[in-house]
Design brief:
Layout: E1 2-4, E2 37-42, E3 48-54, E4 61-66, H1 88-91, H2 93-98, E5 101-106, H3 125-142, E6 146-151, H4 154-164, E7 173-177, E8 207-212, H5 226-229, E9 237-242, H6 269-280
Parallel strand pairs: 1-9, 4-5, 4-6, 6-7, 7-8, 8-9
Antiparallel strand pairs: 2-3, 3-5
Helix pairs in contact: 3-4
């Protein structure tokens, strides 16, 4: 089912809310507040993976967040990303906290810090197992349900994990936003990978798929979203098409796959976060 939403109220909450300097601090005398606790866990081979954990008191659930692009956030020692700061899930972290959710913002593993970031690793079994270790760690910290959410290329990673994992390492639900559904061959073989290269049929947890009607990202055509839930076997599923917002003129391009665009739900992050929260709580988006 596809749901068309009315244009939401625009909220001007920016990344400053994620890593803000206290209002009363004097210029150049106080360090920016931390974005959360930096957790480092051992992952495939001899690698490590870092993620930023932050939680309001008594969190009702936790979200493991997977950014798009190369997935390398370059987290600093305060847990703040130095890259991909315009990614929709990164920008939405304060909204998730306000709604009572803990967040785990996951960086690329230590052997994928290059220009391509995760590249073709997003569909690998080792990648899913790495994310399973993050899920298990977050579940132990929060004692709450843990959902995995991926946006754009991050949706490939999230679906890969949801399809492969079971038991204590598996997420309780899956959220896919602006998922990459179209690839083409290029100089780098991994650019052809899409969410359909994962074993979607193996996914049985609740599945929420969200896209924007005005998304001009060549890789994420919004009219293809129902192809995802046609293959998944979630116990509860919903496909949502968001409307409104500033929009973006012109034909579909790769440039439109970035932040400050419908692909990233620009100026609509609060409304999308609220819809995700409703679905996680057992209702409709």
């Amino acid at each position: 089912m596809t749901v068309a939403l009315p244009a939401p109220l625009r909220l001007g909450m920016a990344m400053a809310l994620l890593c803000a300097t206290p209002a009363l601090a004097q210029p150049n005398t106080a360090a920016p507040a931390a974005c959360g606790e930096v957790i480092t866990i051992p992952t495939h081979g001899s690698t490590t993976t870092r993620y930023t954990f932050a939680s309001p008191p008594g969190a009702k659930a936790a979200l493991v967040l997977l950014a798009g692009g190369g997935g390398h956030l370059d987290l600093d020692d305060k847990g703040c990303p130095r890259a991909l700061t315009g990614n929709s899930l990164v920008v939405s972290i304060p909204h998730f906290h306000a709604l009572g959710f803990a967040t785990a913002l996951v960086d690329a593993p230590s052997d994928y810090f290059g220009d391509d970031g995760l590249g073709g690793f997003r569909i690998a079994a080792d990648h899913a197992e790495d994310l399973g270790k993050v899920i298990a760690d977050v579940r132990a910290r929060t004692k709450a349900p843990v959902w995995i959410a991926g946006t754009s290329r991050g949706a490939i990673s999230a679906a890969n994990a949801a399809a492969r994992l079971s038991g204590t390492t598996a997420a309780d639900g899956l959220v896919l936003t602006s998922a990459v559904m179209y690839g083409n061959r290029g100089q780098k073989s991994w650019v052809i990978q899409t969410i359909f290269d994962t074993a979607l049929e193996s996914i049985r947890v609740p599945v929420l798929v969200v896209g924007h009607a005005g998304d001009k990202c060549l890789r994420a055509p919004p009219d293809q979203m129902e192809r995802i839930t046609a293959r998944t076997n979630g116990v509860r599923e919903q496909v949502v098409t968001v409307t409104g917002g500033p929009g973006r003129a012109g034909p579909p391009t790769l440039a439109a796959c970035e932040g400050r665009s419908p692909h990233a739900f620009f100026e609509q992050e609060a409304e999308v976060a609220a819809g995700i929260a409703r679905f996680i709580g057992g209702g409709k988006y």
